[in-house]
Amino acid sequence: MQLKYPALFQQQCYINGQWLAGSEEEVITNPSNGEVIGHVPTMGQNEAEQCVDAAHKAFSEWKLTTADHRANVLRKWYELMVEHSDDLATILTLEQGKPFAEAKGEIAYAASFVQWYSEEARRAYGEMIPSHRPNGKIVVTKEPIGVVAAITPWNFPAAMITRKCAPAFAAGCAMVLKPAPETPFTALALAKLAEDAGLPKGLFNVVTGDAIAIGGVFTADKRVRKVSFTGSTNVGKILMNQSASTIKKMALELGGNAPFIVFDDADIDAAVEGAMIAKFRNAGQTCVCANRLFVHDAVYDQFAQKLAQKVKALKVGDGFADNVVIGPLINAGAVAKVQAHVEDAVAKGAEALCGAFAKDGELFVAPFVLTQMSDDMLVAQEETFGPLAPLFRFYDEAEVIERANNTESGLAAYLYTRSLGRAWRVGDALEVGMVGINEGLISTAAAPFGGVKESGLGREGSRHGMEEYLEMKYMFMGGLDQ
Ligand code: ADP
């Protein structure tokens, strides 16, 4: 691996400001070719407890620092991420597979959370409320919640970390992090830059290894006051259950099943462009990916043809190769899920306009566009998390709203129409946390990201993302006439 700053490639965990090896190690491979990239320690309960000890101690000092100080440290971390973005993207592409240009985009996005919250650190305002009694004052202050545990996924190995860490540190919290087993090196590189930026020891701890043992400590230890998880709905439910015994605050960013609705009055070319990004970013492996594309009968064939034409032109391959826009999927299980969805749909009458699987063992999938879809197919109910665009035909607005909402998920939705009234009506009616209107890419540090229903709890990004790490304290000051 050619890095300008080789120290970014760390194969040890970062606990209490020290880089620690383990007695056992996990092998990390490149999903593009199966080659070994390196190793990380297999740590468990003891090391997770050490992380919490360190974070608890660091929190007691960090919470007393000024907002200005925290803002400056975060600003430095942001600047280092920007400075080393080529190296960070190289590590990210190696372990995750996404094309290098897209990895650079993720690093910029990840850094933008650190920038945003370096600014927001200064704005954790409280409140004065008119008193209900004479000679009294109602005062509300904001305090950092305490030690936060984060568990993150492999699809955005950098951004899913910074959008938890940055507001946590800005608010005055400390953090213990377990990154995804597939993508630990990006997390450790971020920790290295945090160290360089002057984050005090113990404030940010990164532990790799046994997810169940580490998650057990994170959810049971009384000193951890909040768990922030991004991942599957099933694991989110497990962590919520485990956290019940100590009543922890939870932030859960779970699975989606996003509808992408194209009305007959839409700008079809814009809708096709939007679908390309909403469906195929990160090879379809994002929780806000369009999972069900509903297209009005009057424009269905036109949309299908235009989309398939563009999809056929997408270059699939290794993330470092020129012009590649679709990298490998993360593992064999991910490929098997796409395969199951395609086979189920085709068996029930769907037609594939394009798409193919690589030879055995390879994780490349040439993206699929399926037409003649029906709501009894697997993909209508489950998130594919892969490069498969299924096109469902619809006939009217009320019908498509009902079908779009017919899922336990409620993360993102997209709709394309030229009618202002329809945009508002349908946007209001969709049971989701985020709606893209004539737009396929909605993620930004400036906006609150999160879902409703079984897609989760809480929001990340914007000022609301900072509130997640703050507790309110109400103080009544009485007897002011004395
Ligand atoms: P995916 O299937 O996409 O990998 P998961 O929800 O299984 O999504 O994983 C997301 C994160 O949750 C990863 O860091 C993983 O190691 C972690 N994880 C999975 N199971 C558990 C568990 N029982 N306790 C704690 N963490 C877990």
Number of domains: 2
* Reported CATH architecture of the largest domain: 3-Layer(aba) Sandwich
Tell me the radius of gyration. 23 Å
Mean pLDDT, all residues: 98
Question: Which strand order does the major sheet show?
Answer: 14-15-16-13-12-17-18
Uncertain segments are none
Q: Give helix % range.
A: 25-40%
Number of helices: 15
Assigned CATH superfamily of the largest domain: Aldehyde Dehydrogenase, Chain A, domain 1
Ligands, deduplicated: adenosine-5'-diphosphate
Q: What structural class do you assign from the helix and strand content?
A: alpha/beta
What is the number of beta strands? 20
| Straight-line N-to-C gap | 71 Å
Using the coordinates above, name the CATH class of the largest domain.
Alpha Beta
- Provide the β-strand percentage band: 15-25%
Q: Which fold name corresponds to the CATH topology of the largest domain?
A: Aldehyde Dehydrogenase, Chain A, domain 1
Major β-sheet, in short? 7 strands, mixed
Quick one: overall form? globular
